[in-house]
Amino acid sequence: MIITLMGAPGSGKGTQGRSLASSLGIPYLASGDLIRRAMADRSRWGEQVRSYIERGLYVPDEDIVPVFLQALVASNPVGSRIGGVLDGFPRTAEQALALDKALGAFSPPISQIALVLDVPEDVLIARLSGRWLCSGCNASYNVQSHPPIMVGVCDVCGRALMQRVDDRRDTIQERLLVYSTSTRPVVDFYAARGSLRHVNGDDAELKVRESLLTAARSALAVSL
Fold first, then answer.
1. Does residue 217 lie in a domain region?
2. Residues that are catalytic
3. N or C: which terminus of the chain has fewer CB atoms within 10 Å of its end residue's CB?
4. What is the CATH number for 50?
5. Contact at 8 Å (CB) between 10 and 127?
6. How many helices (H) and strands (E) does the chain have?
7. pLDDT, tens digit, for every residue of 177-197?
């Protein structure tokens, strides 16, 4: 099964997505991680998308769809059933249609659901402006809710922490606006198919984790 984890920037998709994938024993695939690796490697594709990211914009469908679908297939062992928790893809209705078509081409077709983390905007802004990432292992911290033991240093690997360009205050409002106008139609896409589940993302981290796992397992049981 493919689980599309949705929510505005700062809703906790990264932390919760990794936990959910681990609990279900399926791969976790984030478009943001894919893009950042390509940018760090200075690949041709990474340089192509850099200008969008640095302006707080989403990568156009024609640039992200084929790369993400290829990465999804590659993340699963050869000969195994395709499955995964997707974070940051699909972001538009067009991407959702492309994913739906790709999954439908398998025999039998691969089922999918969408889980949405609902978080108030003021909470999102506070989370985003205080978020820092490790430059080495990509561990995530927040100066308010989950600060590192030593300021500016990762608890896990000891590397320096950094703040992403799109987590700075001058780009946060633009990111939320882009989300509301571009990604909301994806919610409607899955809602129309009866495969959408809402989860309160403004709760304790463990409670959110349990709610997501319950929703995923319930949907998985129905699809079997």
1. yes
2. 13, 91, 131, 164, 175
3. C
4. 3.40.50.300
5. yes
6. 9, 8
7. 888 887 889 999 999 999 999
